Amino acid sequence: GYDIGKLLATTGDTTYDNGFANTAVCKSAITYIDGDAGVLQYRGYPIEQLAEKSTFLETSYLVLYGELPTQTELDEFTQKISRHMVIDERLRELFRIFPRRSHPMPVLSAAITALSTFSTDTIGFDAERVDAATHRLMAKLPTLAAYSFKNSLGSPTLWPDYSLSYIENFLRMSFGTVTEQYEFDDEVTRALDVLLILHADHEQNCSTSTVRLVGSSQANLYASVSAGVHALSGPLHGGANQAVLEMLASIRDDGISVADYMGRVKDKKDTTKLMGFGHRIYKNYDPRAAIIKKHADSILGKREGSDQLLDIALELEEAALNDDYFVERKLYPNVDFYTGLIYQAMGFPVDMFTVLFALGRLPGWIAQWREMVNDPTNKIGRPRQIYVGETERAYVPMDRR
Ligand code: ACO
């Protein structure tokens, strides 16, 4: 019932921009996206080249520091991270207080907040402290993520193993047991490495904007990242990979044909969507989806039952790419269309999918926070509003309401 035009006219220079769809809130030199052309670059390097040639730690260094590291720089960075993988025994105890089967996302966020109480580098914004916090978070997030997972299973946790790579160490802490040696599969390790590279940054998405907004009040890096984890947890953001998997499983289990499902999506009689399709920025194939699809074949072949879901996904994609409804609206597969299938084939339950997204997005969150605190022109984030409430009225005593 409100006349937005009239309200705007009375709100001075304030611009109404629902969902910040047209507002640039910062200048950033980290990630470049051309949504029409399907281009994604970190610090100028195309995502395709990084996914093929780089590792997650090397890409993290690039995202954080702006340049690809030399071998010496990468070795030093890796060492600094390995050194901090263990968490304080009292922090480890924290996981015991959560109910068994707790969702690992809130547990992860709580653990990051708790971590800040163990770190002296939470105070101050000088380069040395910020670097120390960067290394600690990069090192400890896989440990906290694996412990959140173990807690959700009710299983005992393992200590990190420094002799392993970043990804191997996380896989072992997630799937290893106290009594049995964890057998690595190089294809799985590399696929997870690539998936994390693909998630490393995506400019001003909801969780990254949250990290920046919280940090803009000069809240420390741990507090800002912990808030980012919460923002990521929502189904419209990091939770979409789970929705895709549920859609594929329901098509399989209910025996619906792909044509019937597509018909239901298009007639719009209910809210059924082709999950994992469409994107606010990409009006072309999401370049990350194209890379993931290549890995899906090799990983999914390894697990019973997953092939069937992949076949349905491929059939849906084929149908959508040849359908006027999707072509006219420029709806293409996004990053989430295939990730859930791969995570499931790796052995992760649906609850862990968004935690894996958080592991991948961490260097982006930290890099964006660092970029912001190092910008002397940065201001506290404080959006305006269009007030649509009551006009002034007199207080009504209780006996007259
Ligand atoms: N299935 C069917 N129709 C769709 C889909 C879809 N997945 N996505 C968009 N459309 C239709 C809309 O109904 C709308 O149709 P209309 O013109 O007839 O009204 C048109 O395409 C434009 O879509 P909008 O919703 O206006 O686009 P917006 O940019 O606001 O939304 C979003 C983007 C949220 C990603 C949307 O495409 C969607 O809901 N996709 C499914 C969920 C999903 O996969 N999310 C993950 C995104 S990637 C990430 O966050 C990591």
Automatic annotation (TrEMBL):
<dbReference type="Pfam" id="PF00285">
    <property type="entry name" value="Citrate_synt"/>
</dbReference>
<dbReference type="InterPro" id="IPR016143">
    <property type="entry name" value="Citrate_synth-like_sm_a-sub"/>
</dbReference>
<keyword id="KW-0816">Tricarboxylic acid cycle</keyword>
<dbReference type="InterPro" id="IPR019810">
    <property type="entry name" value="Citrate_synthase_AS"/>
</dbReference>
<comment type="pathway">
    <text>Carbohydrate metabolism; tricarboxylic acid cycle; isocitrate from oxaloacetate: step 1/2.</text>
</comment>
<dbReference type="InterPro" id="IPR036969">
    <property type="entry name" value="Citrate_synthase_sf"/>
</dbReference>
<dbReference type="InterPro" id="IPR016142">
    <property type="entry name" value="Citrate_synth-like_lrg_a-sub"/>
</dbReference>
<dbReference type="InterPro" id="IPR002020">
    <property type="entry name" value="Citrate_synthase"/>
</dbReference>
<comment type="similarity">
    <text>Belongs to the citrate synthase family.</text>
</comment>
<protein>
    <recommendedName>
        <fullName>Citrate synthase</fullName>
    </recommendedName>
</protein>
<dbReference type="InterPro" id="IPR010953">
    <property type="entry name" value="Citrate_synthase_typ-I"/>
</dbReference>
<keyword id="KW-0808">Transferase</keyword>
<dbReference type="InterPro" id="IPR024176">
    <property type="entry name" value="Citrate_synthase_bac-typ"/>
</dbReference>
<dbReference type="GO" id="GO:0036440">
    <property type="term" value="F:citrate synthase activity"/>
</dbReference>
<keyword id="KW-0012">Acyltransferase</keyword>
